[in-house]
Amino acid sequence: MRIERIELYHINMPLVAPFQTSRWIETERAVPLVAVYSEGLVGWGECVASNGPWYSYETDETAWLILSRYLIPMVLGQDITDPSQPSRLTARVRGHNMAKAGLEMAIWDLLAQAQGVSLSHLLGGERDRVDVGVSVGIQPSLAATLATIRGYLDAGYRRIKIKIKPGWDVEVVRAIRREFGDIRLQVDANSAYRLEDAVPAFQAMDDQGLLLIEQPLGEDDILDHAKLQPQLRTPLCLDESIHSLDHARWALETGACRVINIKAGRVGGLWVSRNIHDLCQAQGVPVWCGGMLETGIGRAANVALASLPNFRLPGDISASDRYYHEDLIDPPFQLNPDSTLTVPAGPGLGVRPVPTRLEKVTLRRAEFSHREP
């Protein structure tokens, strides 16, 4: 398929409630959306960069610049025949994985539509429903935390993840266990600890039956995680440290973790995500799908990715109403009674933005067309 035209939309959507981690708070999502046109079809992609350099150095503004000045010109006019091509075409750009992933997602959507198959099918997915959980940001008090968790359990979520930081960790986990018993529970530190602080804190949680401890140490660290994991029974899971297939391989070879969180945006797209999935599957290491507060566009791609067989833990995908009063898509993603989301079965992503909703949240728009020499 020849890439004929690409549109960029810079959108801004308010969140239902502020989302606080150990390092930042988000109250809205300002992200680029990508629309790629070919042969009468349009594929959609979402870049998951935040509006500040907190989770990553990438932001919505840097992604807009990199997409418009470098990545889009690299694919315009190209004939795309297989899903690996976008990664190869943009490989000259160092980093900027979130910008690359947003563009690549749109092209995968386009390719799947052209073949008349779902994105899940194109990826090699095997499920029509995927297990999901909910991520609970740091709340103003312990009472508020327990009340928030109760609300999500009552809504049907069967796995809870809480954000933690030094001083907001062991006692919070113990209180949750006292209140709710043997629920599926995991914690996420977003790199808030140093090795010397992490050992006593997480050894104190080792008897709490956590599914995993996510990214306790530095966002670029593998070595210290390899020192920490042998001192714990609870599996460590790496998130921010994994930016490529090589990073995943290094983490597994050094014993830095026993679980890997795959976010397509963080690793540069669906092609790399599938390769990391396959590597972990071959080594018997489970993976799960992380979330970045996506709209229904990015959420559809996450659900498709999580349908692959080695996604053996519930993802941070959640229903649309977890984050947005009104999603871009209609119908929105809804939680099934068994704490799953249904994998879209239609061609491509299986979802599209509602034009009036997209227009309402669009801050700016740009169009890029291929012109024959």
Which helices and strands occur, and which strands form pairs?
Blueprint (H helix, E strand, L loop, with lengths): L4 E16 L4 E14 L2 E6 L13 H16 L9 H5 L7 H19 L3 H5 L5 E3 L2 E3 L5 H14 L3 E5 L6 H11 L3 E5 L6 H9 L9 E2 L8 H6 L7 E3 L6 H10 L4 E4 L1 H4 L2 H13 L4 E3 L6 H10 L34 E3 L12 H7 E8 L4
Parallel strand pairs: 5-6, 6-7, 7-8, 8-9, 9-10, 10-11
Antiparallel strand pairs: 1-2, 1-13, 2-3, 4-12
Helix pairs in contact: 1-3, 9-11
Please describe what this structure looks like.
- With 373 residues, the chain is an alpha/beta fold.
- It folds into 2 domains: 130 residues, Enolase-like, domain 1; 222 residues, Alpha-Beta Barrel (TIM Barrel).
- The mean pLDDT is 96.
Give short descriptive properties of this protein:
13 strands; 373 residues; 20% strand; 4-stranded antiparallel β-sheet; 7-stranded parallel β-sheet; Enolase-like, domain 1; 2 domains; alpha/beta; TIM Barrel
Determine the CATH superfamily of the largest domain: Enolase-like C-terminal domain
Q: Identify the CATH architecture of the largest domain.
A: Alpha-Beta Barrel
Secondary structure category: alpha/beta
- Overall mean pLDDT score? 96
Widest sheet, order of strands: 5-6-7-8-9-10-11
The count of strands amounts to 13
